[in-house]
Amino acid sequence: MGERRLSSLPDESVLLLDNADVAGLLSMDKAIESLRAAYSDLVRGDATYIPRIDIFAPTSRSHEFYQWGSMAGVSVSAGVLAVRMKSDIVSWPDGKRQDKYAGRPGLYCGLILVFDIANGAPVAIIQDGYLQHVRVGAAAAIGTDLLARPDARTLGLIGSGGMADVYVDAISAVRDLDRVRVYSPDPSHREEFARRAHARLGTPVEAVSSVEEAVRGQDIVATATSSMTPTFDASWLEAGSHVTCVTRREVGQALLDRADQVIQLGFESIKRDVDVPMMEWKAGGMAAYVCGSPEQRARIPAGEPAEAGVYPTLLDLQAGRVPGRQRAENITLFINVGTQGLQFAAVAGMLYRLAQAANAGRRLPTAWFLEDVRD
Fold first, then answer.
1. Which pLDDT score, from 0 to 100, does residue 1 have?
2. Which option is the CATH number for 133-268+306-339: 3.40.50.720, 3.30.360.10, 3.40.50.620, 3.30.1370.110?
3. What are the pLDDT digits (tens) for 312-323?
4. Which of 52, 60, 91, 311 lies in disulfide reach of 71, CB 3.0 to 4.6 Å?
5. pTM value surpassing 0.70
6. Which CATH topology does 13-131+341-369 take?
7. Which of 365, 367, 370, 371 is nearest to 16 (CA)?
8. Where are any strands of DSSP class E within 30-98?
């Protein structure tokens, strides 16, 4: 694919796109297309990324911590570099899930800053919520397309939130599903999800009353939750099934042991065996810098052993360094974490071009973001 450069807008403006703008412009098919191009760039050496690194600081409330996360990436074919940053107040009320907010409960803060690599100027500021979900789903679709059996037709889904919505859409984009079963703890939530997904896709979607019922007998199993612990018993999997996840926290050692082939999307954070002064590996296995007293720091959950493994990556698979599915009866696992910075560059670059064509978003003067004082 040839190099693509973005041209400046006539009024030299920076596009401000909110979640409604993103939802109106970005389809799952376009997101998948943008990621396929970015991963082709990565194979050729025309893309790279900085993995996620967090910062934690105590708050005046003993049960809550401040958490900052950032990642960045660039893709030559997309023509942009993107930085995604998120600012949260986090807590772990029962040790099994993470709660978060910014400002007040129910609100969140995540932004994507997009820069034109042809001239270094900023071109867009994007709310990350909708794009974040779609890029994760699109990556799960690519992993499913490469590793699931070609005749896979049934999906067991754990979770009924926004990420579950994009997972069922994404997997439907690469496999013709005949049936979906969904489980989440709240019956009204899973039943509403089933109605919503069926209306959107036309596929029969059944809300079931247990995780086991969602998993057993399914060709594909997707876990899309905020759980801090493994979400299902690996012994329930059928031979020949394919599994994908949203976070490594959802994957336990038993699943890693049962899978015949494990592929991880890429490196999510700095690897644990790298000696970096002051760096720790905390919630979700993320590399982090932490401040606070020893007692305060001890309240942040440490990464689980299952989060520390390193497996062949999507890049290894696409470059032919490792094989794909070997036999129909194999169980495959796609750990859908890593390369986040590259994903944001790819999808945000696609979104920026779509927004330009549609004259969408609000425009801020580029001059607000440039200066004549050299650092």
1. 43
2. 3.40.50.720
3. 999 999 888 999
4. 52
5. yes
6. ornithine cyclodeaminase, domain 1 (3.30.1780)
7. 365
8. 47-58, 65-75, 80-91
